[in-house]
Amino acid sequence: MFRMKKLRLALCGALAIGAVAGPAVALADYVYFFDGVMNSGDSKRSAGASPLYEVSGRSDNGQTICVVAVDAGYNQYGSVACSDNLAVHPYARDPWKYGYARPAYGAGVRGRARVDF
Amino acid sequence: MKRSTKLTVVGLVVAGAAGTAGIAQGVSGKESVAVRALDNAPAAASAEVPALVRQALTGQAASEFGAEVANVRKITASGDRPTLYITTTKEGGACISLESGETSCGSASSVRSGKFGLLTIAPPADGGPVAETVRTLPDGTVLARTLPGGKMTRYGVVPDGVTTVKARSANGAVAKTATVRSNVYKLDLGHEGKPDAAAAIELEKSDGAAVTHALK
Fold first, then answer.
1. Per-residue pLDDT for B210 more than 90?
2. Per-residue pLDDT at B191
């Protein structure tokens, strides 16, 4: 009986996760706010009150690119995430106002960064 | 037994140390990376993977990179190094995630060379804003300027054989040293834009051989 209840709870949990993850992926849209050479920070305001889904960036020239989600007051959520390949910064709170990307170690990072809604 | 078979299929077999030849080919034909931690660490159950890590790995960007969400390995905390999550990618590379969700994914070659890692930059010590607006374009794009000074920390994955990772300053002096455990390390890189900021990392093997990678 206990095992059945546990199983039922697990199934409910799985369905709940599916219900949340499914539409989020299906409806996810994104905008590139940086595509080329970045010499200083570029950011993009999110659309309306829609929460950002993630901020990500990829470097084409092996330099370190950083991404972060910040609120309207430029207070960052967690640490800035940086990578030579792909950096992803997710967040839980909403609505976030900006996805923010920038180079680390100087300027001239070639690559792309985007925000997902 | 089942786990080791699966790891061979996805191409993550022990093949050698950093910078050496002899990278084995997995059954799938992908390049394999010699990272024993991925062999030894148990696959994390779905419930063990924090929601923000899952979110990062299933997002558009990591999905395009080929993160294999069903193959997340949990590397438990050791010393001052926090728990990390390592995920294989379809191309034989890996992703590394903190519990708070910040994630970096790298190619097989970057893991093999020891260049792969996640750099985090904490908010500046004063706790104030981290950026300021320079100007706003008509389409809503905000051009901003960062306010450097935050503490930089590197979380890296290195191939078997690497025992120590050192942070070197611009003048070549060793600023910090981290011990590698389970193929991963946490290294303090000083503060962004400050004199103590590291300029390179040096990977050292147990036989004393070393390779240096400039941070750029």
1. yes
2. 92
B120-214, which class in CATH? mainly beta
Q: Which domains does chain A have, with CATH numbers?
A: 29-116 (2.60.120.380)
The C-alpha of B181 sits at a distance from chain A's nearest C-alpha, in angstroms, of: 21
- Taking the C-alpha atoms of residue A90 and residue B53, their distance in angstroms, rounded to an integer, is 8
The answer to whether the Cβ–Cβ distance between A80 and B129 falls below 8 Å is no
Write the CB contacts of B196 (distance below 8 Å, at least 6 apart in sequence).
Answer: B169, B175, B190
Residues of chain A contacting B106 with CB distance shorter than 8 Å: 83-86
- Chain B residues in contact with A106 (beta carbon < 8 A): 216
Give the right CATH number for B2-115 from 2.40.128, 3.40.50, 3.30.160, 3.10.450: 3.10.450
What is the distance in angstroms between the Cα of B24 and the nearest Cα belonging to chain A?
23
Predicted ipTM of the assembly: 0.81
Could you state, in order of their start, the residue ranges of all structural domains in chain B?
Answer: 2-115, 120-214
pLDDT tens, position by position, B145-183: 777 888 999 999 999 999 999 999 999 999 999 999 989
Out of B52, B59, B132, name the one closest to residue A56 (CB).
Answer: B59
**B215: pLDDT strictly greater than 80:** yes
Residues of A in contact with B123 (CB under 8 A): 75-76, 79
Q: Which strand ranges, in their side-by-side order, compose the sheet holding B141-146? A: B131-136, B141-146, A42-45, A98-103, A65-70, A80-83, B117-121, B151-157, B184-191
A33 reaches B (C-beta below 8 A): yes
**Hey, is the C-beta of A78 within 8 angstroms of any chain B C-beta?**
yes
Q: Where are the alpha helices (DSSP H) in chain B?
A: 2-9, 36-40, 51-58, 60-65, 108-113
CB neighbours of B197 closer than 8 A, spacing ≥ 6? B152, B169, B189, B190, B191
Does residue A96 sit at the B interface (CB-CB below 8 Å)?
no
A43 vs B contacts (CB less than 8 Å): 131, 141-144
